[in-house]
């Protein structure tokens, strides 16, 4: 199903970065890693609200979206650090992520990966991280209002929580996959 995201991009223009990204960046900064570790991937970057924050913090960013419209919105900002930014138009199913990276951000985008390809793409995301870098974003629950769309990926809360580290277990990388479980 083809979507026209331009109305959404206009509505969120100027909005701050998502809290999951800010938390991931704070965790990354506490690790005192070298500047060379600051390569971030913004999956489903949209009009760039999270990409802008990564660039503001002097990260090299690969901003990926399946929509030329999204990339056009992103590149329409004259205040961008273009020397730190690369863009790519690709669907998740066709994507090969660079490795290693310091952070992978996927704000409300992973559900748009086909269920058939999601497990392999998830493995590719986790394999691309170096230094135990964070993954952050949101997954949609199996009771989400869009869950009848068979071309999207949804997750049962119980199964997802059992696959993520609990507060009592140490994770190799901080993960903040939140939202959509209602």
Q: What's the mean pLDDT score?
A: 78
**Which second-level CATH architecture applies?**
3-Layer(aba) Sandwich
How many alpha or pi helices? 6
The fraction of residues assigned to DSSP E strands is 5-15%
Biggest sheet statistics: 6 strands, parallel
Q: How many domains in all?
A: 1
CATH fold annotation: Rossmann fold
Tell how many strands the DSSP assignment holds.
Answer: 6
State the distance separating the first and last CA atoms. Answer: 24 Å
Q: H/E order of the elements?
A: HHEHEHEEHEHE
Radius of gyration: 16 Å
What structural class is derived from the secondary structure elements?
A: alpha/beta
User: Can you tell me the overall shape?
Assistant: globular
Q: How would you sum up this structure, described in words?
A:
It is a single chain. Mean pLDDT is 78; it is low at 164-182. Strand 4 (103-106), helix 5 (118-128) and strand 5 (135-137) form a beta-alpha-beta unit. 29% of the residues lie in helices and 14% in strands. It has helices spanning 6-12, 19-30, 49-56, 68-75, 118-128, 157-163; strands spanning 39-43, 60-65, 85-89, 103-106, 135-137, 175-177. Strands 3-2-1-4-5-6 form a six-stranded parallel sheet, with helices on both faces. It has a single domain, classed as 3-Layer(aba) Sandwich (Rossmann fold), CATH 3.40.50. The protein is an alpha/beta fold and 182 residues long.
């Amino acid at each position: 199903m083809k979507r026209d995201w331009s109305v959404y991009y206009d509505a969120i223009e100027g909005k701050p970065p998502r809290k999951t990204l800010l938390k991931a960046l704070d965790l990354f900064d506490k690790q005192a890693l070298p500047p060379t570790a600051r390569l971030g991937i913004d999956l489903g970057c949209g009009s760039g609200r999270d990409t802008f924050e990564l660039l503001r913090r002097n990260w090299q960013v690969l901003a990926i979206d399946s929509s030329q419209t999204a990339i056009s919105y992103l590149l329409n900002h004259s205040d961008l650090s273009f020397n730190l930014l690369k863009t790519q138009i690709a669907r998740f199913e066709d994507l090969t992520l660079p490795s290693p990276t310091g952070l992978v951000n996927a704000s409300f985008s992973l559900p748009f990966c086909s269920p058939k390809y999601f497990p392999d793409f998830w493995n590719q995301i986790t394999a691309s991280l170096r230094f135990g870098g964070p993954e952050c974003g949101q997954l949609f629950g199996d009771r989400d209002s869009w869950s009848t769309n068979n071309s999207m990926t949804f997750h049962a809360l119980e199964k997802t929580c059992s696959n993520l580290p609990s507060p009592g277990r140490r994770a190799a990388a901080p993960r903040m996959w939140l939202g959509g479980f209602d």
